[in-house]
Amino acid sequence: MKILLCNDDGIHAPGLAILAAEIKKIAEVVIVAPAREQSAMGHAITMSDPLRAEEYYKNGDFFGWAASGTPADCVKLALFALFDDRPDMVISGINQGSNTGINTLYSGTVSAATEGRINDIPSFAVSLTSYTSKEFAPAARFASKLALQMESLELPKGVSLNVNVPAIPEDEIKGVRITRQGLAVYEEIYHRRTDPKGSVYFWLDGERRQEENDPHIDERAVRAGYISVTPIHYDLTHYQTVQTLSEKMVNL
Amino acid sequence: MKILLCNDDGIHAPGLAILAAEIKKIAEVVIVAPAREQSAMGHAITMSDPLRAEEYYKNGDFFGWAASGTPADCVKLALFALFDDRPDMVISGINQGSNTGINTLYSGTVSAATEGRINDIPSFAVSLTSYTSKEFAPAARFASKLALQMESLELPKGVSLNVNVPAIPEDEIKGVRITRQGLAVYEEIYHRRTDPKGSVYFWLDGERRQEENDPHIDERAVRAGYISVTPIHYDLTHYQTVQTLSEKMVNL
Q1: Taking CB atoms and an 8 Å limit, are A202 and B176 in contact across chains?
Q2: Global ipTM
């Protein structure tokens, strides 16, 4: 089995190194990751600029390809430019910070997995729900187990998995919960500041969020100590509305 | 009615100007659009850099705010930083080029509308299905009619519309078709080149795509001469799989 690893924190990120070390125990690993951090890049791709992919070495050993683009670009490059063979799986992560709820849309990590799945490759994203903890090992071990089980899960065409692992000691993790994406709205907080030349600028600084109480929402599951696994897909069509809208828009 | 306009082609783009002129006939218009082109930015947002929004004038008249970030940033700035009042609607476009099928995921234009809808504002994106035609007027007139009808459509919470207008003479447009997002896979074509210093780089150059024959797919509808209207949402959860996966993953 050949597994392509990607992320959005960049090829230097510790989460990727720990994931790679773990996955190498069960599969051939190829890595194409952004040369620089690409957090919150969503499903952005590079269309108007050339892309570069350079060999990246760690301690004298070849580690993978550092690409100039976004996470989705990395997967596209791996599939259509860099290699002759397609990987059997795409794993994206381990992301530093949770990718739950609405943040799923903004996540470059998730989009790399989605890009793999668009191209019919079994794919999942895995994130550690802390912006500071470097305890990636439990998440890496879970990713390895999941990789081995992916085929037996028989995921439908177009469906990938978004995995979030709580940043708590491994023996305190209560298990796995299959979840749905939270939909709570964020109220963004921007700081308005003035630069030394007198021009106004804004810094995004966290957000206030509504609470959702359903335990089967991704964010709630990780906060309760579970690994959340959300099956996601990239068909954005709202099918119920397709049916009702046809009648309502007849006169437009 | 106050309508926020955004796009991903940038505040200078003719599609935005023509849309603004048309929408001003039926509503108060505020514009926050990227200072530079942000095509294919997907749902990227700016988290690590400050954002700027500067007044942009056209022919001596104030036109709108030119922001340094992505289309989604523009909508966030409009809602949470620049104005005291929320708009009643968000319209994103008119995009130069179609946003159908898988391209819906990559589109900054669509993501701006999605960002509006995340924040509970009725929203739609509108694109002209040509990368060269400047005949935006029919799409602008349709956007105006749709804006007036949005309330009566009673779209469910979280649902926005992705509109694609065929780039053909207005009297040849056959009508409106409610569609679903195409899912055909693109096989990307990258050109491998060598720069003057001998380093390899890649240029993305179009794609080969599978054909989908269902007339109710967005891409097929516009090619048949219809305006396609696809109701989309941002809950990526694949609900059928949530149910089946709980049993299969019990031993992980």
Answers
A1: no
A2: 0.94
